[in-house]
Amino acid sequence: MDGEPIKSRRMFSNSCLQNFRLHRREALSGALRRPVSVLWAASAVYAPQGVRPPFRPVIQILSTHFQRKRGFPFPLNFARIEQQIASGNSRGILEGFHLNIMHLVNALPGVAAQGLIWGIMAIGVYITFRILDVADLTVDGTMATGGAAFIMLTMAGAPVPLAMLGAFLAGVLAGLVTGLFHTACGIPAILAGILTQLALYSVNLRIMGQANRPVSSRQYDLLVDQQSVRSLSLDNPILVVAIFVAAVIALLYWFFGTELGASLRATGSNPNMSRAQGINTNFTKVLGLMLSNGLVALSSALLAQYQGFADVNMGRGAIVIGLAAVIIGEVIFGKVFRNFALKMLAVAIGAILYYLVYQVVIWLGLNTDDMKLITALIVAAFLAIPYWKGKYAHVKVPAGSANAGAKTGGDQDA
């Protein structure tokens, strides 16, 4: 009786090895599908009897083969595969291999849609972080305020465009409060943002009446819907949000070309010189904070439509995502995009790249609880890259330039 399980294990292991050698020259999908099907079929025989077949040697051979021949830089999750085999979960077996590239490809439309939505928020962060040179932490609260205001206005019967305008104005009011804390009360900008963010949590609860509110495209005529993200139609949220991003960039490009917009840019560049030129820097700071938080609330309204609900915690960590998008866009496209409009476009692309990295992390099977840590490391790395390049990059001086300089100096002395 004791020899039968051992004999069965050996027969199973040999059959798997023969099957792998037979199909190892096929494409990835074919080479993976047959061994997995053998493992799953065997689990139906062994699992009810409480016998654990020797899957690890076969899986380890598959892992080594894929790493050497297919170029995969990561090992297979042995423990997860064996656990799913023991339970007879075929889907879990496939997920344990982490090699199904189609999972990542299928997620790309959602990555693009969410990246563009958060790109509008990142443009708002860009206004305060780069143009106004103010550290504004109101974003985490405003990101929930916009969605809450939009959903409540929509449920009250307001048209979607009017509800989105209401969400934008709610964000403008939040930025106004932060600006008055900073300019009228003399509170530092970072602390003023924290105070407003803290107050907005209670305000958002007051607006919604509860922690979250759902909104369905079946009941309301929403602009963006997650269910249409893979459809080839004008209702695709990627197309709709891309139009929003283009319109926002065009309007901001026009605004910052006006006298008022130029004064706002001058305030962030050199406040003392701006005051010497007669610019009311307190007014421009408040205006910049209002405009920034209005864009953040507009992004929140689009996000609430896309995901189908608004939550008081939906803005948690939004400032980190916004900074990541700004830094990624600047580091990658900083030397290519010189125009102001293209710089804002780079920020939106940076948000898409951030969500692409997020999706790759999920696809690789890493723990999503560590995503905040990974995000912090990514932002720190992209912030440090320009500093390292400026500190350690050696500038090549053309030969003879020193002699030419000395000659020029001698001529001047003469």
Structural account:
The chain is an all-alpha fold. The protein has helices spanning 3-23, 28-46, 55-69, 78-87, 90-97, 101-131, 139-155, 160-183, 189-208, 237-255, 259-269, 271-276, 281-307, 318-333, 340-363, 371-392, 401-413; strands at residues 212-214, 309-311. Helix 7 (139-155) runs parallel beside helix 9, helix 7 crosses helix 13 (281-307) and helix 10 packs antiparallel against helix 15. It is globular. The model is unreliable at 20-78, 93-99 and 401-414 (pLDDT under 50).
Basic shape = globular
Q: Secondary-structure element order, as H and E?
A: HHHHHHHHHEHHHHEHHHH
Structural class by sheet pairing and helices: mainly alpha
The N- to C-terminal Cα distance equals 108 Å
Strand order in the largest sheet: 1-2
Strand content: under 5%
Report the biggest beta sheet as strand number plus sense, adding barrel if it closes: 2 strands, antiparallel
Compute the gyration radius: what is it? 28 Å
How many DSSP helices?
A: 17
What would the average pLDDT be, to the nearest integer? 78
Give the helix proportion (percent range).
over 70%
**In terms of per-residue confidence, which ranges show pLDDT below 50 for 5 or more consecutive residues?**
20-78, 93-99, 401-414
Strand element count: 2
| Oligomeric state of shown chains | single chain
Blueprint (SSEs and pairs):
Layout: H1 3-23, H2 28-46, H3 55-69, H4 78-87, H5 90-97, H6 101-131, H7 139-155, H8 160-183, H9 189-208, E1 212-214, H10 237-255, H11 259-269, H12 271-276, H13 281-307, E2 309-311, H14 318-333, H15 340-363, H16 371-392, H17 401-413
Antiparallel strand pairs: 1-2
